[in-house]
Fold:
Amino acid sequence: MVAQTELSDAEVDRIFHALADATRRDIVRRTLTVEASVSELASAYDMSFAAVQKHVAVLEGAGLVVKKPRGRERIVRGNPEQIRRAQALLDRYEQIWRSRIDRLDALLAGDGPSPQN
Amino acid sequence: MVAQTELSDAEVDRIFHALADATRRDIVRRTLTVEASVSELASAYDMSFAAVQKHVAVLEGAGLVVKKPRGRERIVRGNPEQIRRAQALLDRYEQIWRSRIDRLDALLAGDGPSPQN
DNA sequence: GTAACGTACAACCAAATGGTTGCACAAACT
DNA sequence: AGTTTGTGCAACCATTTGGTTGTACGTTAC
Structure:
């Protein structure tokens, strides 16, 4: 089990915001499989190099992607660690939901009229 | 197992965008536990009623929350179904990552020099 | 050394976001 | 009936976003 670095609201904002764009999600998907330079990525989309470069910067700022220099290129790699962190966030919501169910179950275990939904 | 309604890019955009705001995440958290009217929610945050109402509208548009009328009030309830759908999306990325690992493992199972990271 | 390539960054622009106030209207209370 | 409460919506505003082009600069190739 990895130490769960507590994410600030701002960091969580950045993660979900970064994921809220189809191009950026595609970049993550792509670089989780094979790392690619920024210009390689850029050639895959119908927009300017600068636009793609900005998307990568957003992803990097959110920690969803890591850039390492190689010669004149910057190699982009998806960061599964951060994906897992995002999953953990959503898990929390699931847990909240489940604990509510548990409480209701406990309550209904006694008796009372069937709830109207 | 529930039929996995295929989400469009635009829908996924809306889900993650809705989650990219601390106030909205808090509304989801809150209404997963206890449903609340819009004005009840509004009283919990340091912003105008209209602002909170807009946040709720964004969440509703993303399907993360459901509103049902009760008298003059609109009762807001978190939608665990959609949360799960978001989780499923992130799971896909995890899978992509894992399948990459598998491929690398298969490759390295043979022989070859140890990779430089 | 010079040209080409890959990246970063600034300036600019249109559209979207997140907040505000004000108004309209239906439901509930007196 | 009249007032209060809860909601929705429009108009407005500042800021952010997502795109563009242009420029600068380090790295690689000739």
Observations:
- Chain B touches chain A at residues 9, 12-17, 19-22, 25, 28-29, 32-34, 78, 80, 83-84, 86-87, 90-91, 93-94, 96-97, 99-100 (CB under 8 Å).
- Residues 99 and 105 of chain B are 10 Å apart (CA to CA).
- Residues 80-110 of chain B form the longest helix (31 residues).
